[in-house]
Amino acid sequence: MSVFPGVFFTGTDTGVGKTFVMAALAAAFRAEGLNIGVWKPVQSGGQIGSGETDAERLIEASGVIEMPEAVAPYSFNEPLTPFLAAKHEGINLALKEICESAEPLAERYKALFVEGAGGVAVPLTEDALMIDLISELRIPVIIVARSGLGTINHTLLTASFLRQRKIPIIGVIMNDGNLRNLHEDPSLAANADLIARYGGLEILGHFPAMSGKIDTEALIRTVLTKIQLTPIRKAILSGNFENGGIGDDGK
């Protein structure tokens, strides 16, 4: 397949909120006039049409006009890692076919925001992890990390694995959205600074917990006030990293 400009969003674990964060950023850049599409190559744990799948959430929150089947070409019901969810339904996923499934979207958009399933070491096919998909796509990565206790270890390990494969990291977005009792976690005050110090990673901002009605406009306002958009914009406009896209400092 032809390489397309874009950004890959990976989590440090499952359930860290990368769907919500990616959709909000897509909405913000689309509001600027950038033609950003969203792609969730493989999703599991829900049925399209329920309104509860990642693809449907991405479409609703980002404002992209697409069918869920186009955004998530491989969708499985069981809440399992993609390899096992596909195998449960008698399907053998192949990395080449997963990559090629992006081509219709890539033809319609300036760049794609791509959401992985879980973290970089999640089994994707019989012989490939999620990081192999990122390597094949040749686009830089944003790490979405929990804000609370445990995030330093998970984030530094994720960054280390990406760097072993020479995949550029744009930065880290700390997500408060899954923390119910922020005031009860004393690690919050220092976690981002320690990730930046020990990992040589740029902290792009904190995505806050949101309450009440959350619509696209609310997400855009949040992104504009809480997230550094310049490094992400540079990555979008530079294209894939093989052709001069941005990267981290390789520490």
Largest sheet: 6 strands, parallel
Indicate the mean pLDDT: 90
Q: Beta-strand level of the residues, as a percent range?
A: 15-25%
Give the quaternary arrangement of the chains.
single chain
Structural class: alpha/beta
Molecular shape: globular
Determine the number of helices (DSSP H or I, runs of at least 4 residues).
11
Radius of gyration: 17 Å
How many individual β-strands? 8
Please state how the strands of the largest beta sheet are arranged side by side. 2-5-1-6-7-8
Question: End-to-end distance, in Å?
Answer: 31 Å
User: Spans with pLDDT under 50 lasting ≥5 residues?
Assistant: 243-247
Assign a percent range to the helix content: 25-40%
How does this model look, in words?
The chain has 251 residues and is α/β, with parallel strands linked by helices. The chain has eleven helices and eight strands. The strands form two sheets. It has a six-stranded parallel beta sheet, sandwiched between helices. A two-stranded parallel ribbon has the order 3-4. It is globular and about 45 Å long. Mean pLDDT is 90; it is low at 243-247.
What are the key terms here?
251 residues; two-stranded parallel sheet; six-stranded parallel beta sheet; alpha/beta
Compact summary:
With 251 residues, the protein is an alpha/beta fold. The chain has helices at residues 18-31, 54-62, 68-71, 82-88, 95-100, 103-108, 130-137, 151-164, 188-199, 216-226, 230-238; strands spanning 6-11, 36-39, 42-44, 74-76, 111-115, 141-146, 169-175, 203-207. It has a six-stranded parallel β-sheet with strand order 2-5-1-6-7-8, with helices on both faces. A two-stranded parallel sheet has the order 3-4.
